[in-house]
Prior knowledge:
Elements: H1 21-27, H2 31-56, H3 61-83, H4 88-112
Amino acid sequence: MYFxxxxxxxxxxxxxxxLPADQLARLRLTAEQETQVAPxxxxxxxxxxxxxxxxxxxxxxxxxxxxVCEARWIREExxxxxxxxxxxxxxxxxxxxxxxxxxxxxxxxxxxxxGSFPSNPPIP
Length: 124
C-alpha cells in the first residue's frame, strides 16, 4: 500500500497530485482514487523534472529529440495508468485534461530549449 510522504501531501493532508486545482476539481476523485493516483503522478513529475534538467544541458538536437520522445512515453504511461483507475465520466474529463497537459508539456520543453526542436515535435 502507498503511504504518501510529507512532501507529497498538500497543506490539508491530502495526497499532492501535481494537477492544477481546476483540473483536479473536474476529475472529482474519491479519497481512494486520490491515494492511488498520487504515486503515479508523483513518479511522472520526478521523471519529467529529471528530463527537463537533461534537456537544458544537452546541446545536440538529436539527443534533445530523444529526450522529448522519452518525455512523451513517460507522460503516456502515467496517463494510461491513471485512466485505469477512473470511472467512464472521469475518463472523459481526464481526456480533456490530458490534452491540456500535452500542450503544457510542449510549451515547457520549448521554453527550456528555444529554437532546438523540429517545427512540430510529436508530443502527445
